[in-house]
Amino acid sequence: MGKPLGKILVIDDNEDILLAAKMLLKKHADLVQVESNPGKIPFLLNNDTYDVILLDMNFTQDTTTGKEGFHWLEQILEIDPQAVVVMITAYGDVDTAVQALKAGATDFVLKPWQNEKLIATLTSAVKLRQSYNQVKSLKENNHQLTSVLNSGNAMNVIGESEAMKVVFNLISKVASTDANVLILGENGTGKEVIARAIHQQSLRKDKVFIGVDMGAITESLFESELFGHKKGAFTDAKDDRAGRFEVADKGTLFLDEIGNLSMALQSKLLTVLQKREVTRVGANKATPVDIRLICATNMPLHEMVEKNEFRQDLLYRMNTVEIHLPPLRERDVDIPALATYFLGVYNQKYRKKIQGISPQAMKKLQKYHWPGNVRELQHALERAIIMADEEILQPTDFMFLVEKHTETEEVDYSEYDLETVEKMMIQRAISKHAGNISKAAKSLGLTRASLYRRLEKHGL
Ligand SMILES: Nc1ncnc2c1ncn2[C@@H]1O[C@H](COP(=O)(O)OP(=O)(O)OP(=O)(O)O)[C@@H](O)[C@H]1O
Fold first, then answer.
1. How far is the CA of 187 from the centre of ligand 1 (A)?
2. Average pLDDT, rounded, for the chain
3. Residue 90 φ then ψ, to 5°
């Protein structure tokens, strides 16, 4: 659209009016289509799209009922419900004009019109049409993005053990309610997988699932990331921005690593959860948010409450239902199904044709204690599939660095390079502290963040 009024259709049975409209509007519009016969409206609208339609109220000379105008207005809106129609009404017939607005017209102009007023009315009508279109395409995009986001992450939750059956049973009971869920379990046990499964089985499944890693958000960016900000609220706030709470509106908000929040941030989060509304940084008005909350952590939240490291009232807000995900070493029955599942995933990813896992290799997998839980098993399968020379995976395809070393068992570190020793030490520490990252980090003399960086580096 080049000129401000775009494409205009003018329908009036008075040829003088059509001529006057065309003369006036052609300077402001890309196309002015005039038509004296309203019967042609369906044909015109089915063959072209107009930014605005100027429609006469009365087609029969000397009538002022507007009946015909209403009839054609209805026809137009039936063909294009988004059409922007401005009615031309006789002077003094404002009542009919008001009825036309109720029937779906956007605005009206009085005949004889003042040129400037007509242009101004049509310009605002065109702007309205543009915003209708924008809203429509944003809604379509949003719908597409939501389904891509949700389907891209749709995954099978594998588990045949009694422990996982209990988890599945809980999910099916809780999913369709809006109850807040707290998922507890060691790193890599599948807390996010379970959170997504709850979302996928909930009434909110067609809306977004937004995950936030609370451990990765710095104290200073917490409010802006979660609650959003107004343009200019701080130096880097170049535009208005919605926070994760607002983005997750009508969907599910998954707050991971919730146990890592400082006391100060815990109370900010609690306020929002109590009020169910957020105020963007720099704004003075709160926006209501409708979210389903799922939180997860590998930290012992109940113990932390006792030690005054975690707010009890916040814990009670989050744990209407608690799901405990057992570590993989306590459900080795699940290992064959998980390993076979990952075999399929990575065969496809790396275009390999590995047929299966030998019974001895499977036994080895079931005997190992998996300090990194399902994530570690997944990486072990990925590595084995990339490296394997044979069609069936053998025990030698799975080399575990801390294979069954007991605390007292000595390892000859001189056999390994520094990187490998570091990895072994980390695995040992995590295993010793049953997956508790804080304790493992402390025993290694590292901060949690630097342990996480090393876990990432070693693919643990
Ligand atoms: N039951 C399961 N079925 C299939 N895949 C699983 C299952 N559990 C975990 N996984 C896979 O293991 C990996 C780790 O899972 P996830 O990220 O959900 O764990 P987590 O407990 O949230 O980890 P973290 O505490 O580190 O955030 C993911 O790649 C996930 O796909």
1. 8
2. 88
3. -70, 150
Q: Report whether 380 contacts 386 (CB < 8 A).
A: no
CA angle 360, 364, 367 (to 5 degrees): 135
pLDDT computed for residue 410 by the predictor? 53
Residue type, position 367, single letter:
K
Distance 194 CA to ligand 1 centre (A): 8
Q: Is the pLDDT of residue 150 over 80?
A: no
Ligand 1 atom having least distance to the Cα of 183: 21
Give the closest residue to 88 by CA, choosing from 198, 154, 193, 10.
10
List all residues 6 or more positions away from 402 whose beta carbon is below 8 Å from its beta carbon. 371, 424, 427, 428, 431
**Do 368 and 406 share a domain, yes or no?**
yes
> What percentage of residues in the chain have a pLDDT greater than 70?
93
Q: Which two tokens stand for residue 90?
A: 């006789």
Tell me, yes or no, whether 306 and 362 share the same domain: no
Residue 271 and residue 346 in one domain:
no
CA dist 62 and 30 (Å) reads 33
User: Would you say the CB of residue 191 lies under 6 angstroms from ligand 1?
Assistant: yes
Question: Scanning the structure block, which residue is given the tokens 């008075």?
Answer: 14
Domain that holds residue 126: 7-133
Ligand 1 center to 394 CA (angstroms): 25
pLDDT beyond 60 at 154? no
Mark whether 245 and 281 lie in a shared domain: yes
159 lines ligand 1 (CB under 6 A): yes
Residue 190 sits in the same domain as residue 301: yes
pTM exceeds 0.80 for this model: no
For ligand 1, the distance from its centroid to the CA atom of residue 346, given in whole angstroms, is: 16
Centroid of ligand 1 to alpha carbon of 189 (angstroms): 5
The pLDDT value recorded for residue 336 is 96
Cβ of 158 closer than 6 Å to ligand 1, yes or no, is: yes
Q: What is the mean pLDDT of residues 223-244?
A: 89
Provide the total of helices (H) and of strands (E) in the chain, helices listed first: 18, 16
User: In terms of domains, do 158 and 227 share one?
Assistant: yes
For position 220, what pLDDT does the model report?
84
Question: Domain boundary residue among 303, 326, 349?
Answer: 326
Q: Are residues 282 and 374 in the same domain?
A: no
